[in-house]
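User: Show me a protein chain along with its predicted structure.
Assistant: Here is one chain, sequence first, then structure tokens.
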Amino acid sequence: MGTDNQTWVREFILLGLSNDWDTQVSLFVLFLVMYIVTVLGNFLIVLLIRLDGRLHTPMYFFLTNLSLIDVSCATSIIPQMLVHLLAAHKAIPFVSCAAQLFFSLDWGGIEFVLLAVMAYDRYVAVCDPLRYSVIMHGGLCTRLAITSWVSGSVNSLIHTAITFQLPMCTNKYIDHISCEILAVIRLACVDTSSNEIAIMVSSIVLLMTPFCLVLLSYIQIISTILKIQSTEGRKKAFHTCASHLTVVVLCYGMAIFTYIQPRSGPSVLQEKLISLFYAVLTPMLNPMIYSVRNKEVKGAWQKLLGQLTGITSKLAT
């Protein structure tokens, strides 16, 4: 189809990480293992929260949402990347590329807002513990979760629409591992200033605003912890927030580095590594962080393993 001498492409070619076959096979094995660990780890966290009544609290309700988002984010990129690592023709149809961009942006936006919601939950737990159950009631938790999902989806829909209405002419080679928004915009044969401004605006609204809310929450949390007289009390309050704070540092840092200044942002190689970080590493690490650094989750794991051991012993006898 042609418009004003511009040709609209029907598929894109993803250049990926390497052209060397041995390297691609090694990466395939590595990313496949990491993807399996990601899916199993996050689903086990969700299952554990469902099975253990002690984890039926707002914090773990939001953690369930986070685990589902992590699996979805990884699934939106890794399976296609695995196929392309072993394929000679690394093509992705126009519609599939648009869908991939939508879902990767969607899950990322939801996660940024959800982490701010989780920070508020930790703020109430530490700074106003006596009224925690009154403030963080089921209705509020549901509304906050819905707000996270809706805001991320609306932002993603807008960006996907304005990105794929750009004429790509005959440019179809995306120097990336997936249909990442900055990589796709670079293919346009028209001025993309308005798209870059839109990215900047949405980064402020959906990235920096939640990040600032997280900072404000933790300023109040740290201030409250420092006022606690007993060392044991301070340690307990800190452990309440340690897992979430670790995930916050991982998730917000590179996103701010990538999207706040798209014109003078990272190189193409850095963009690829950052995408791998979000699609592969972070979703795999999050359940590990919450399992290792959280006493309640470790206790639930021990209880579940004890029950499974008991059942196995009875079956054996």
